[in-house]
Design brief:
This protein has about 675 residues and is mostly helical. Among the domains are: about 210 residues, no CATH class; about 130 residues, no CATH class; about 40 residues, no CATH class. Helix content is about 60%, strand content about 5%. The strands form 5 sheets. It has a two-stranded antiparallel ribbon with strand order 1-2. A two-stranded antiparallel sheet has the order 3-4. Strand 5 and strand 6 form a beta hairpin. The protein is globular and about 110 Å long. The relative contact order is 0.05.
């Protein structure tokens, strides 16, 4: 880390702001797209080297001296970053030069990516300073610490000089074995000081002295940041143009940098989350977002305000409840409405402009953050009975979510992400409020079924198909949409009938197993035997509801082998139907096709397909030979059972799998009670 920290401190001490700005701009330019390795990354690299050693069978493998120097160098760099953060936190408290303040905040934002450097940033005074610079507070009601005096900077300079001298002494005497051994002993004693410091002690003007492993000099170990979707801004990329003003005023650029630092600190530190909550900074954030919603042209800071609100509601669930009580649903519904520029046809019907341009990159990302915040504050309402006022509020929101499903973004990946978060939010809202999705007026281009607009349901079906085709993060991507479609089918008859026609068309070809093929049904049936229990139950539930929770029909479409998991869980292995009390399905029958009826008797109920005729294994055997074979099989099963290799199971009167031993005892007990009853009669 080639940073002249002594030079920065001297310039700050002498108030040479021009030189400070040049130093920090150079730092920002070099490390804008980097983050620093932590202990976990170091261990991963060491493990990779060990695996490589095992693979190549290198006999003389040991931790080389270069590895030790590499780790020592990282500790020296960490010491520099910690002190730079400490100096900058004191510097920004009283800095009023907006241009220089923005540069210093950008340096703090880069440093805040490293969890081990957060100690100076998580104190109450630091958080309040950042909140004031971000516009969350005015700073008038909180007493700020005084400007650090010259002693503060002198202590840091002395520590750096001692560390640099120790580092130089270590390398000049490295040929002397005795000196090296003494140095290693000293390093072991002082190594603990490289860890995280006491949070409250960072408010003082002194700084701890470094250990030998924290000596000064060298270059840092870093890795290039991967740019995520949220960073694909229409404005300039981060780290570019440190000397130029970004879009908007210099004050806006300052607020943006301060907000980014707060986002990093809150994300990386549970202590910062707790203090953010205790200091009631969430109230200032709510006011800031409420004021920004009514603005015709939102500032570039709004995305980071939304990101900070999402982080706090996700990491501190009690703040989500507080936000809901403070009218958060109304606030962010209005924000969503503003982003989409909604025009209303009536109370619960938005006008869909088919010729509207795609949603811009910046707007789509703000919409995603709003959807995530709304999910955090409404996820507990799914099973609740809303009040009349709350139901009207949720229906208003669902009408806007219909637009989120129908609109497209500039990039296909952004469209998929937008629809994914829309699905998550829809699954969190009360089911009875989702009828708004079906009450949309029909148009010539609408997807309809029995006179009902199915545009939203069709979009959800297409979304599920895309997720089924993707092979990564299957559970995270599929569970929400499977649950949403299942619950919608239970609540709305038209949705169930439409999806049944699309997913479970009448059976005609039974030459393949239900899980074979590329259809939507076959993909869902394959999930019914997935290793993840939650995912396989979600997939089975959807098919089961489409079959109106009828066991015979469920086995017909999936095969008994695939259906056994759900049937065993619900106690339906005996074949009886136990219909949900809260759901009343229509009595229409499932008529078989002519092709299915012709092959019905040849279908194997376990595999769900027509199997090739197999020769009779007992053909040509006499009755005595058959009996002997049966006795032999019974002995084998009995032996396996006694040795606990297998456990014979049976189905009890409730249709649940139970051990055969327990089943026999129940039957015997029932037999005794019946005989006793007969004798009494």
């Amino acid at each position: 880390m080639e940073v002249d920290l002594e030079g920065i401190i001297q310039c700050i001490k002498s108030r040479d702001k021009a030189s400070v700005q040049l130093y920090l701009q150079e730092f920002n330019k070099e490390y804008a797209q980097c983050f620093f390795f932590d202990k976990e990354e170091r261990n991963r690299r060491k493990q990779r080297r060990l695996e490589e050693f095992k693979k190549n069978k290198v006999r003389d493998y040991t931790d080389s001296d270069s590895d030790g120097e590499e780790y020592e160098q990282e500790d020296r760099d960490l010491f520099l970053r910690q002190n730079l953060a400490l100096v900058l936190v004191g510097f920004i408290r009283n800095e009023v030069n907006c241009s220089l303040l923005t540069v210093a905040l950008r340096s703090l934002r880069i440093l805040s990516r490293d969890k081990r450097v957060l100690a100076p940033l998580v104190t109450d005074s630091a958080l309040l300073t950042l909140a004031r610079l971000a516009g969350l507070t005015t700073g008038e009601t909180h007493e700020e610490p005084s400007d650090p005096d010259s002693t503060f900077y002198d202590n840091i300079i002395v520590s750096l000089a001692e560390a640099k001298a120790q580092h130089s002494h270590y390398h000049h005497d490295s040929d002397d074995m005795e000196t090296v051994e003494q140095t290693e002993e000293c390093t072991e004693e002082d190594g603990g000081s490289t860890g995280s410091r006491d949070v409250e002690s960072m408010d003082g003007v002194s700084t701890p002295r470094p250990s030998l492993t924290q000596a000064y000099g060298g270059s840092t170990h870093q890795k290039e940041l991967e740019r995520g979707r949220r960073d694909r801004r229409e404005s300039k990329m981060e780290g570019e143009g440190d000397t130029e003003e970004e879009s908007g005023s210099t004050e806006e650029a300052q607020r943006k940098e301060a907000m980014k630092v707060l986002c990093n600190v809150v994300y990386n530190s549970s202590w910062a989350q707790e203090r953010f909550s205790a200091l009631r900074l969430i109230n200032g954030l709510i006011e800031l977002l409420s004021a920004g919603i009514s603005s015709s042209s939102p500032s570039s800071v709004q995305f980071y305000e939304l990101r900070l609100m999402f982080l706090m509601t996700a990491l501190r669930p009690e703040l989500g409840k507080h936000l809901q009580q403070a009218g958060g649903v109304s606030i962010f519904t209005a924000a969503l409405e503003s982003c989409l520029e909604v025009q209303w046809n009536n109370q619960y019907q938005c006008i869909l402009d088919t010729v509207a341009p795609p949603i811009s990159l910046d707007t789509s990302q703000r919409i995603v953050e709003i959807l995530k915040i709304l999910f955090n504050i409404t996820f507990s309402t799914h099973r609740q009975e809303p009040t009349e006022e709350a139901a009207a509020q949720y229906r208003h929101l669902v009408a806007i979510l219909h637009l989120c499903l129908m609109r497209k973004c500039v990039l296909a990946d952004d469209t998929d992400e937008l629809q994914g978060h829309t699905v998550n939010l829809l699954s969190a809202l009360p089911l009875q409020c989702l009828d708004v999705l079906l009450n949309v007026p029909l148009t010539p281009c609408s997807e309809q079924f029995n006179g009902v607009n199915m545009d939203s349901v069709h979009k959800l079906l297409l979304f599920m198909e895309r997720r089924l085709e993707q092979g990564d993060k299957v559970k995270e991507k599929l569970t929400p949409i499977l649950n949403l479609l299942t619950e919608s089918c239970r609540a709305h008859r038209e949705t169930r009938k439409y999806l049944r026609n699309q997913i479970l068309p009448p059976l005609r070809d039974v030459s393949q197993r239900p899980e074979e093929g590329s259809t939507v049904k076959s993909r869902i049936v394959r999930l019914m035997t997935h290793l993840d229990t939650d995912l396989k139950h979600c997939a089975a539930d959807l098919i089961f509801v489409l079959c109106k929770e009828n066991v015979r029909r469920f086995v017909k479409y999936t095969g008994y082998g695939n259906a056994a998991g759900l049937l065993a869980t619900r106690g339906l292995l005996g074949g009886q139907n136990i219909q949900s009390i809260s759901v009343q399905y229509s009595s229409d029958s499932d008529s078989d096709t002519e092709e299915y009826r012709q092959q019905k008797d040849r279908i194997n109920p376990v595999t769900g397909r027509v199997e090739a005729l197999q020769p009779d294994p007992m053909e040509g055997m006499s009755e005595d030979e058959k009996e002997e074979e049966a006795r032999r099989l019974i002995k084998l099963f009995s032996k396996l059972s006694r040795e606990d290799i297998i456990q014979p199971m049976g189905v009890d009167s409730q249709g649940r799998l139970v051990p055969m031993a327990g089943l026999k005892e129940n039957i015997t007990d029932e037999g005794h009670s019946d005989s006793d009853f007969d004798e009494e009669k």
